[in-house]
């Protein structure tokens, strides 16, 4: 039965909960049956109040191996369509629960055997001083996770379960960090008193009862055949005399009302509070649902993407579906597509790992056929004779110059006291020139550039990257190649970027520092890069980008803390720059002027800012959202964009949204030599000479 949404009980009717102890749930010393009927107790060694390891245990081996596995969450989520949750234990989409992860902490009164999983539902928790998850607010059916679990149970949607090797309920040695178990049905969802809060629990039952689970103990007996099982034995249930709702009997100590809104919630037969130590009732654990051939999963437990890809697909390399992960057909590992050319099971070219073990040799290379520029640009004419421009009044309108850098149209966006963005708009004459952007787009697809994806902290950066020149700290750790190894298209692009950087320096009257590093990003179908900045201390003030292929939209906005005057943790800035366009600009400018003139001291200045923050909270006008973009640019094939000014990267951030198709972005920067080692200096040495230099035509 589906539990109703819990309603907080009144103070007079709310039972006083007993403290919950940690450790193993064991048989109580004395039996206190609440009915005349006797029940068989089972002391289950795998039902714990916490899922932490017990030092005295000796883990058993498993009977088999998982049908798929991964050593990190991003690879797991890349390859399994039914578990895409990089963080959190419940994957839900469209109000349906598709996948579940049981790992280190399954919560109090959890259970796991060869066919049944009983665990808590995540959400509303925090970690205490010991690192244990503690429920800090009541759970109910309104949360997205709980709502999806209830929907999957009601609609009979099977749920795939993954077990992590930090889970200690099983007491067996698991072969990998994350191991795919099987498809399960949700049989029961209910609420319990956990400490002083109401927490949700869920019982899963394995769908395929006819085969032995791979995670079963080695040499353990085979499961009963389906036709020999007693499906008539089901969990007991009774109706509560106070709320008139049915609840299933979960624990051996007696039946309890499991409706949180009821005054008898979590009391044994409505008379006494539940004890701290509880044992699962035999019928609740051993009951099984009869097989129903109409209940089938939406996805394959282990998808076979490779069998659906045809080598004849000329543009398969850039399609969205091909930047998904696959399951290695040899070792069953979940593999992200880390390389531009396809998938490789091993992380590098080495044939052995650090322990001397042989690495899996599997790799799958996609057909690399250059995609014609025609198929990434929708306009009837791929490049205009002269691009006509218009601007949305909601954004900054640039200064237009059609003369100084002809044949480019020069658009300049200036943010006073911060910096500027120069957008050089290309046209047909520029793009179709010998070795121009049209040719560069084709050549980059044919070269072995070494493009690959690099891991972030909790995900995999979707864009394919290559660095040439001097190294520096980027969002991800990216290996750098020397310009001596660069292919002709890279050097020609570097010539264009160096020329564009020089024009921006000349316009600003700054000393020109030629770029000594290039970052190449390849965007496949539907890839994008979110808001970020290039404000590392090791970078010079100018950053230039050449765009090739599909058009993209570039948005620029003020960073959160400078827009609001405080951090996301609501901590006031030590130095508030009070930039035009920031929130409450006039009031903040007035206060800053008072501080600078000496009419108010620092203590008074901070106090007035805090009062302003508190008044906005009370009035409901605090508005903790992000700043609205102030600059919007449509960047087309062959265009150059140059951002100048350290303040631009310090106070603002930008995002790039390509038009769903293949695009290359080549970005050149100046890395300050004092921030790199002597051995890396040589990588950034570049003499373009006449062959690679660009004349602006």
Overview of this structure, please?
The chain is 15% helix and 23% strand. By secondary structure, it is α+β, with helices and mostly antiparallel strands. It has four domains: 69-218 and 231-286, Roll (PUA domain-like); 303-369, no CATH class; 398-558 and 628-687, Sandwich (Jelly Rolls), CATH 2.60.120.590; 566-618, no CATH class. The strands form eight sheets. It has a nine-stranded mixed beta sheet with strand order 19-20-21-29-26-31-24-22-23. A hairpin with a 2-residue loop joins strand 9 and strand 10 (197-206). Helix 8 (585-597) packs antiparallel against helix 9 (602-618).
In whole angstroms, how far apart are the ends?
73 Å
Q: Which CATH class of the largest domain applies here?
A: Mainly Beta
Mean model confidence by pLDDT: 83
How many structurally independent domains? Answer: 4
Tally of helical segments: 12
Q: What's the total number of strands?
A: 31
Could you say which structural class the secondary elements and strand pairing correspond to?
A: alpha+beta
Radius of gyration of CA atoms, rounded to a whole number: 31 Å
Domain Alpha-ketoglutarate-dependent dioxygenase AlkB-like: 429-686
Region (Disordered): 1-71
Biased composition (Low complexity): 34-43
Protein name: Alpha-ketoglutarate-dependent dioxygenase AlkB-like domain-containing protein
Please render the helix and strand layout as text.
Blueprint: E1 69-70, H1 73-79, E2 90-93, E3 96-102, E4 111-112, E5 116-120, E6 125-127, E7 133-135, H2 144-154, E8 159-164, E9 178-194, E10 197-206, E11 237-239, E12 246-248, E13 267-268, E14 272-273, H3 282-286, E15 326-327, E16 334-335, E17 342-344, E18 363-365, E19 399-401, E20 409-415, E21 419-425, H4 428-431, H5 437-446, E22 464-469, E23 480-481, H6 488-508, E24 517-523, E25 529-532, E26 539-549, E27 552-558, H7 560-564, H8 585-597, H9 602-618, E28 631-635, E29 640-644, H10 646-651, E30 652-658, E31 663-671, H11 678-681, H12 689-692
Parallel strand pairs: 3-8, 22-23
Antiparallel strand pairs: 1-9, 2-3, 4-5, 5-10, 6-7, 8-9, 9-10, 11-12, 13-14, 15-16, 17-18, 19-20, 20-21, 21-29, 22-24, 24-31, 25-30, 26-29, 26-31, 27-28, 27-30
Helix pairs in contact: 8-9
């Amino acid at each position: 039965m589906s539990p109703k949404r819990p309603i907080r009980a009144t103070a007079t009717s709310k039972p006083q909960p007993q403290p919950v102890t940690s450790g193993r749930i064991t048989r109580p010393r004395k039996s206190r049956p609440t009915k005349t009927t006797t029940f068989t107790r089972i002391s289950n060694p795998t039902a714990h109040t916490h899922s932490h390891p017990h030092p005295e245990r000796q883990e058993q081996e498993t009977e088999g191996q998982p049908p798929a596995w991964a050593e990190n969450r991003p690879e797991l989520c890349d390859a399994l369509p039914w578990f895409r949750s990089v963080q959190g234990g419940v994957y839900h989409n469209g109000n349906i629960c598709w996948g579940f992860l049981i790992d280190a902490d399954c919560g109090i009164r959890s259970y796991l055997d060869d066919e049944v999983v009983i665990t808590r539902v995540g959400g509303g928790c925090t970690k205490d001083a010991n690192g244990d998850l503690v429920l800090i607010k009541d759970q109910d059916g309104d949360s997205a996770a709980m709502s999806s679990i209830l929907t999957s149970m009601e609609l009979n949607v099977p749920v795939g379960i993954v077990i992590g090797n930090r889970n200690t309920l099983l007491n067996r040695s698991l072969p990998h960090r994350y191991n795919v178990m099987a498809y399960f049905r949700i049989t029961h969802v209910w609420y319990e008193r956990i400490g002083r809060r109401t927490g949700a629990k869920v019982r899963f039952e394995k769908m395929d009862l006819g085969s032995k689970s791979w995670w079963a103990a080695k040499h353990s007996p085979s499961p009963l055949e389906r036709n020999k099982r007693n499906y008539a034995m089901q969990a007991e249930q009774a109706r509560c005399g106070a709320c008139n709702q049915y609840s299933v009997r979960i624990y051996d100590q007696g039946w309890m009302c499991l409706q949180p809104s009821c005054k008898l919630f979590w009391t044994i037969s409505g008379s006494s509070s539940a004890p701290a130590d509880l044992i699962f009732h035999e019928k609740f654990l051993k009951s099984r649902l009869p097989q129903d051939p109409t209940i089938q999963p939406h996805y394959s437990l282990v998808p076979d993407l490779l069998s659906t890809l045809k080598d004849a697909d000329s543009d398969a390399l850039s399609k969205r579906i091909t930047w998904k992960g696959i399951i290695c057909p040899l070792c069953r590992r979940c593999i992200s597509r880390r390389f531009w050319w396809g998938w490789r099971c091993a992380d590098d070219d080495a044939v052995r790992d650090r322990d001397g073990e042989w690495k899996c040799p599997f790799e799958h290379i996609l057909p690399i056929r250059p995609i014609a520029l025609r198929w990434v640009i929708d306009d009837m004419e791929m490049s205009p004779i002269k691009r006509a421009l218009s601007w949305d009044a909601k954004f900054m309108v640039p200064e237009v110059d059609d003369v100084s850098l002809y044949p480019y149209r020069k658009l300049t966006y200036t943010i006073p006291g911060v910096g500027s963005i120069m957008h050089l708009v290309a046209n047909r004459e520029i793009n179709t020139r010998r070795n121009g952007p049209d040719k560069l787009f084709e050549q980059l697809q044919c070269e072995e550039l070494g493009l690959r994806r690099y891991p972030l902290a909790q995900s995999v950066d979707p864009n394919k990257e290559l660095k040439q020149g001097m190294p520096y700290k980027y969002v991800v750790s990216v290996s750098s190649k020397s310009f001596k190894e660069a292919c002709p298209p890279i050097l020609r692009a570097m010539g264009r970027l160096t020329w564009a950087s020089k024009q921006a320096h000349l316009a600003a009257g700054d000393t020109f520092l030629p770029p000594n590093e290039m970052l190449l990003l390849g965007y496949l179908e539907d890839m994008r890069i979110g808001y970020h900045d290039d404000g590392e201390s090791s970078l010079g003030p100018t950053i230039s980008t050449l765009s090739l292929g599909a058009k993209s939209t570039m948005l620029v906005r003020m960073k959160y803390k400078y827009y609001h005057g405080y951090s996301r943790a609501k901590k006031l800035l030590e130095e508030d720059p009070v930039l035009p366009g920031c929130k409450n600009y006039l009031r903040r400018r007035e206060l800053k002027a008072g501080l600078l003139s000496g009419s108010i001291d620092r203590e008074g200045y901070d106090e007035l800012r805090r009062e302003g923050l508190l008044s906005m909270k009370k009035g409901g006008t605090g508005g903790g959202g992000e700043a609205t973009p102030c600059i919007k640019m449509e960047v087309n094939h062959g265009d150059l964009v140059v951002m100048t000014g350290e303040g631009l990267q310090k106070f603002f951030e930008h995002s790039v949204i390509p038009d769903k198709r293949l695009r290359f972005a080549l970005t050149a920067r100046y890395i300050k030599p004092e921030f790199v080692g002597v051995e890396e200096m040589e990588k950034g040495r570049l003499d373009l000479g006449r062959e690679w230099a660009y004349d602006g035509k």
